[in-house]
Structures are given as C-alpha cells and as structure tokens.
Amino acid sequence: MLRKISKAFIFALLLISLIPLTFLITAPKFLILDSYLQRAGFFLLNGKVEEGIRHLKIKEVEVYLNSKRVARFNYALLELSPVGLSFKGVCGKGHLLLERSLFGAPSLEFKKFSCAEGVKGIEGRLILEGRVSGKLTLRDISLTDIPVELAELDFKGNKVGVSLKAMGTELRGSLKVKWKENNLLGSEVSGRLRGNGLELAVSGTLANLRVSVVRGSI
To answer: What is the count of structural domains for the chain?
Structure first.
C-alpha cells in the first residue's frame, strides 16, 4: 500500500529541483521535462503539447514507472513567473499543485486528487524545504490483498505518523524515512504499525517497500 502512495507523489517531488528559471524560458521545455523524468525512472505518454514563453501545457498525460502507470492527468501545466515555478496536474475536479517560490518554501498540495493509480482520493499539503512536513489523507486505497478505506499520514521531518483503517481494523504507528535528495525513490523507510492484535513491519525504500506480518494474521 505504501508503495502505491509513495509513487503517487514522488513524481511531483522530483519536479522541485527542475532547472533554473532563466534557462527554462528559452529552452524546449517538454524535451527537458521528459529527459529529466526519464533519468529519474519515469516515462510520459501524452497527447497535445503547447509551449509558450513562460508555460508548458500537456494534455492527456499518463505517467509510468517501471512499465506501470502511476498517475494520469487531463492536463498538466508548468508555469514560470517572475517569482517562481509552479506545476499543476488536473484530473476531474481535483488537482495536484507544486509551487516553488523565490521567497518561500516549496510546497505540494493535493485537493480532491484522484489521478493516482490505486488511490481514489488524496487531500493535504506538504512543505518540502529542508525536512518534509505536513499532512496527507488518502481514501479508498486498492491493494491486492488488503483494501484500505482511510490512511492519514503526518510528516515531521524524518518521521511519518501513520493511521490506517482497513477491513474493520485500525492500525497506528510511525515510519522513519532517511531522505535522499538526489534519489528520492531510494529513500529508506522502516517502522511498525499496530492495532487489534495485528503488527506489521515496514522496510525497504520508497520504490521497493516490503510489508510483513510480525504478529497476528490478515
């Protein structure tokens, strides 16, 4: 479950360190974006591309990681302004908004976001300067074996508080994340979740999480 959640917003996090603004103004923006994401392991399928002096709009976007679709947008919009850079991915009535300003910390906002594979709804906001902080709420997470009705994540630097509701059971705990700025998917995760006689151990990286039962049964 956590692997699907992480893939859903790791794509957006990678855009934060995208290329200086002055270079983006005159460069072929789509080719730069596509090349940058491919180096991070992502692949884009898209429809019409519209490039302006200070914006890039891509319609009918599909984002793949390791040959699996992880996100889709009706359209994605990358915009430059005198004070910063923003990326907005829109799907239905919801969106993802990533903003990087010259005068404030980068932020990532999810509002009625339903574009991520395996997650029907994401709400919340993260501050991405230094250590990640903020809260996310995820609803109706589809898993192979365990359907999760609700997941609440509280990011506090290198720790993430987790509260889950799945199959009538509430699980709580915390995860420790060792962030790697140059390789976010390689960030290491470890921790345990407990509830109603069940205990789960979480380990691995954001790209390859492992969840095992320590006590109880599913």
So the answer is: 1
